Structures are given as structure tokens and as C-alpha cells.
Amino acid sequence: MQDETWHIRVGEKQIGPAQSNDLIRLAKRGLLAPDMQVRCSTDNRWMRADAVPGLFPGSCQSSRNSIVPPLPTIDAPQPIAASPSPKKVSPTKWRWAKIGGVSGLILGVVYILLVRQGKTGETDIDVVIGYMTGFFAGITLSGTFLGFIAGVLRDYFSSRSLVEPALAERPVERQQTPQGNKWNVISKHWGGLYPLWFSYWVINSVGGVFTVVIATLISILFERKSDYDPLAIFTALISIWVCILAVVIWQVVGVWRSANSYAARRLSIGQKARWAAIAKVAMSLGVVQLVATFLSSGLPELSEATRMAFMGDPDLPAYSLRIMRNGTEAEITGGIKYGLADDFSKLLKASQQIRVLHLNSIGGRIGEAEKLYNLVRERGLITYVHSQCLSACTIVFAGGKERYIAKDAVLGFHEPAFPGISQVELQSSVAEQTQIFRDAGFSANFVLRALKTPNSEMWKPKLAELVAANVITRVSAGTQFAASGLGDVTKENLGHKLTNAIPLLAEIRERLPQDYDAILDAFYKSYLAGDTEADAVAAARTKFLPLLNSLKPLADDDVLSDLARVYADEYQALGSKSSRFCYLSASGADTTQNFAAELPDTLTKREMELNERVVHTAARRTPVAAAALKPIWEKVSDLMSIQGITDSQVNLLNADNVPPSKYDDYCFASVSLFNVIGSLPQKDSAAIMRAILTANGND
Question: Where are the alpha helices (DSSP H) in 552-681?
């Protein structure tokens, strides 16, 4: 029996085409009866099935040319004319593939025009053309594939309604492709017409190479140097997976059908078909492996790309930009997500005088961070972190020609990550980030440790490590740059942040809300004006210090006694650095200057805790009579004399103007005075402190 194309008449309908192997298989399964009519495509004449040589061995019919009259149910004059076979009609799957492709193209146009409003975020015409080409190619390919799958399913279920369900195992409505057609290999493999060994080894190998090549070409097509676009990432990923799925389905169906034909031939001669079973098992395992790869890699990547492209990257906080200090400084706050680099670029074009970029971010997308890094380097900006700069934010920070951080600022490093990323892709991303840090001058050992920290953790190097590794240029004292690190906040939110950071303010808010509002308002206005941190703090101190000084004489006795000892320790610490600092602080000659930065952290913490106790315990007190204070003052004077304080040094404490040459004596006397007061019994100590604080208003 030669390999020819046949049609089968079932009732008033005909099905096909089918190959000779298909007829043999159907006959062996009892689905094709000897008295059913079949027709060879070469002569269009109907005949009984048992007249086909080799189809029913032992049949009394011996000639393929034995013509049988049509069945009674068929109108004899028009059996051939009614047959649709002479008219070439495209199978449903190809028609639907065309419809899907056109629909995808239309959706792409609608998205670009209505959603993106014709914008790609680029001005380079070559980049725009490349982006548009890749986008429309990807979405058209996706629509074509989905339409093709829908058509295949429709063909499949339509064919089952013509004959018994078992006939669905054979190719239905498969159109014989002319040998000269360039798609002949594709259609022949899909129909299982190649030998099993050729379909399994040759076609599978070629299909694998083809998939790799196409995936690489798609990646190259969508790769836009120095750019990052979630929609391009999504389109590239969906295009690659559509290509992979299309090739795999084509491979599996072709091998499966070829295995069925191989098995039918082997069984027809009474032999086993082990290779057919092995091929099916191997292809099934391949499908399982592909599904596992898609679930572990493809699905997470597509899910993340979808959230980035169509949901605004919801896992990252929104970003904001702020201009400060008369347009010379700018701040980026929030997540580093798509669109930030373009917005910052526009800001730089509108404000050419910007020289400093403040960063306050938990990180975000590496691609967007690299775009910001390039902008910072191109403009020669200084980068500064007052609060925190974590993960991808450190890439932007590395771009600064000079890099500053505040004393308590935090930089955080770890390796990059993306859902579904392979080890090879991870190593490539690490290599790119390593190059960025090395170009910025970071030490090799520092970069190695930073990028070996797992993404689930965060390495926050100490200040000394950052300086030693050349990560930062220097530490800011808060006087060089505008106050930042709090974000684009309202007055209410700013107050919430400050009270969380400074418990003393929370205490003032509870007991003295009007005074709290005045302090907050002074700081907020200075912050919005882009003043330095020192200026903003000074503005708040002008409201805070008078309030605090008015409350100190009203505090409990134990608070005032502890306060005397803190004053003595603070003046001694300042005097060890500069007698001028000690004099200005002890005398109150300059209330605008904040000496907290010159004091040890332990002393600053003690004073803050005492100030909280002052506010908490302040209440109306009965003034101590001068007669009651006199013996206490005499005791203080005697104790100071024992410590070696002279009358001239004591007199300096009451002088309106002290020459710089006497700053050392003034400081020595001040330390001695408060040490003595702190050593007195608590009631006496508190009485003297109330008298001093009431008379002088010293802090």
C-alpha cells in the first residue's frame, strides 16, 4: 500500500485527508469497516475500503480500481461536487492565528496611543524605532500563538463530532502541503510523516538550536543599552516563552504522531514497538521538565514583569523629588522604580544649577538605578545621604564625584536579585555592579563582601569601614547641605517622625501642645526652605530653649541635683577641647550655637533624659527665701575654696564680660561650682539650682 492521501465518507460527510498509515491504524482498531467508502486524492473516485490493497488482508476484493456505487444516503449525481476537498480551505488554526496576530497588533497600537500616549521615554530616534519594532513584534507574535492554539483546539473538538471519539487520535483536517512549499518540514513533522528516528533526534535537535537562537535574538532586540523599561522586559519575556512553547508543542506533537505511525507499522507485522514507547516517555519527561522550569523561573519572571509594567511596581514605595537651597540641591526619596530617572533628568534640565543630590531610599530596580548613576556621573553631582541609602540606592550614591554621609546615616549592601533569575544571570548582574563600584573607587575587598551578602540580608558597614574603603569622601557635620532624609512630608508627618526620634518633643506635645506647635513650625519652615540641618535645628532651638529654661526651675529636686552634675561634666568635656566652647556654653553668651556635636554621646543622652524629666515634673514651686539660701551659698564657697578656686575666679562667674585670656579660669570655676552643688544634700542642691536658673536663665 503506497503512502497516499485518502478521504473517508461517513454518512453525508467526508473527513480527511488521511495518510495510508492512518487508514491501516483505523482498520486495525475497527474504526474503518471494509464496506465504508474511501477516495484517493489522485483520482477522486470512491471505492470500498476493502478494495484498497493491503488494507484488509484476506479480503475477496483484489483491485484498488473496483468501483462501488455511492451509498444510498448520498445523492449520486453530486458526490464529488459536494466534496469540499478540491477547494483549498485554510485550517481553522491558521485562520485563527492570523486573527490573533492582527488582534495583538491592534491592542499594541491602542496601548501605545491611549495608555502610553505615544511616549517611550526616549528622544533618540534609533532607540525609539528599536523599541517600537520589538514591542509590536512581541505582542503580534503572542497574539498569533494564542490564536493558533485556539484554532488547534477548535479543529480538534470539531473533528470529534464527525466520527467516533477514537478517531481523534489521527490527524484531522490536515492539508497536504506541496513539496515545494517552504513550510513543508514544519507541516510534515507536525503530521508525524517523518521516520521516528528523524523526528526525535534531528527535529528535536534543530528545534532546540532554533529556540536558543530565537531567544537570543529577542533578548538582543529588546536590549536597550543604558536603559530600562518594564514593558520591554515583559514583552521580551512573553515573546521568549511563547516561542519556546510553540516549538515544544510542535516537537512533541510531531514525535508523538511519528511514534504512533511507527508503532502501527511494527504491530501490523507482529513486532513490538519499544522505541515508540521510549520516545513518548522521553518527550513526556521533557514536557514535565519544561513545566517545572516555567514554574520555577518563567512564571516568577513574568509575574514580576507584569507587576512592574502594568501595576506600577506596587512592592516599592512611590518616589518623590524635591528642590532645595535655591535650586542648588535636589533630593530623591522613596523607591527607585521606572520613571524616576526620566523625571530626574527633566529636573536637571530645568534646574541647571543643581550640584548636590540627596538620597533617601530603601532601594529598588537595578536598571533604573544604573540610569540614575549615569546621570549623576554625567553632571558631576555630589551625592549625600542623611538618613539611609540601601540596596540599589548605593549604585546611585557611587556615581557622585564626592560622596558625603551624615554621622548617623546608613548605607546598606547586598547581592542583586530578581524572581526566577538563573545563576548565570545573577553572576552577570553581580559582575556589572562590581564594575560600577570599582569604577567609583571602592576597594576590591569591600565590593566582594558587599555583593556576596545574600539578598535576604543587608550588610551595613560602619563609618570607619566606609572611609577605609573609599566609599565616602567625608562625613558631614550638618552644615554643608540642606536638611534632608525626612522625605516630602507634611507638617503633621514631620512632627510624627521627630517625636518618634526625640522623646523630649513627645513629652512637650503631651504637656504643652501650643509650645510644641511653635517648635515644630519653626523647624518645618526651615526644612521646606532648604536650610541646612544646623540652620533648621537652630530655628527650632530659638523656640525650644526659652521654653526649656523656663521649666527647669520648676522641676523636681532630684532632677535639679542630677542636672548640676551633668553641667559639671559637660563643661569639663568642652573645656578639654576648647576653653572658648566651655565659656560660651556655661555663660550662655551664645545661645544660637549647639555644642552637642562636641560632647560624648553618653553626656548628650544624659542631658536629653534629664530634659524629659524637667518637662515631665515641671510644676509651680514656692520660691526659697534669700535668708534660707545664704548658709547654703556659704557652704558652696567654702567647698570651692578647698578645691583651689580663688575669689577672682569666683568673681568671673558674675562678670558681664570675660576676656578670652580668662576663659580657662571661668571654665575651671564653673566646673567646680556645679560639682560642689551636685555633691550637696538633694534639698540644698535643688534650692541653689533653682536660684541660679531663675536668675540667669542658663541652659
Answer: 557-577, 579-587, 601-617, 626-642, 647-652, 663-679
How many domains are contained in the chain? 5
Same domain, 569 and 463: no
Rama region for 60: left / alpha / beta (φ>0; ψ in -120 to 50; rest): alpha
Low-confidence ranges of the chain (pLDDT < 50): 60-90, 118, 159-182, 224-226, 698-699
Residues 511 and 581 in one domain: no
Q: Please answer whether residues 255 and 279 qualify as being in contact, where contact means their C-beta atoms are separated by less than 8 angstroms.
A: yes
pLDDT tens digits along 594-618? 788 788 989 989 999 999 999 999 9
Sign of the dihedral defined by the CA atoms of residues 572, 578, 579, 585, in that order: negative
pLDDT at 373: 95
Euclidean distance between CA atoms 679 and 684, whole angstroms: 10
Residue 481 counted as domain residue: no
DSSP string, 501-555: H-HHHHHHHHH-HHHHHHHHHHHHHHHHTT-BHHHHHHHHHHHHHHHHHHHGGGS
Strand, helix or coil for residue 42? coil
Q: Which sign, positive or negative, has the C-alpha torsion 176, 179, 182, 187?
A: positive
Give the single-character DSSP code of 380: T
Q: Are 372 and 345 in contact (CB under 8 A)?
A: no
Find the angle CA(87)-CA(91)-CA(93) to the nearest 5 degrees: 165
410 SS3 class: strand
Q: Per DSSP, which regions of 373-453 are E strands?
A: 382-385, 388-390, 403-406, 410-412
**263 CB-near residues (< 8 Å, 6+ apart):** 273, 276, 277
Cell reading at 205? 535537535
Give pLDDT, residue 3: 66
The per-residue pLDDT for 654 is 85
C-alpha cell at position 406: 551624615
In this structure, the answer to whether residues 228 and 129 fall within a common structural domain is yes
H helix or E strand, kind and range, residue 146: helix 125-160
In sequence order, what are the beta bridge partners of 388?
410
Q: What is the pLDDT of residues 558-573, one digit of tens each?
A: 999 999 999 999 999 9
* CATH number where 450 lies: 3.90.226.10
How far apart, in whole angstroms, are the C-alpha atoms of residue 206 and residue 194?
Answer: 14
Position 71 scores a pLDDT of: 42
Quote the CA–CA distance of 184 and 196 in Å, as a whole number. 17
pLDDT value of residue 63: 42
SS (H, E, C) 319-367: CEEEEECCCCEEEEECCECCCHHHHHHHHHHHCCCCCEEEEEECCECHH
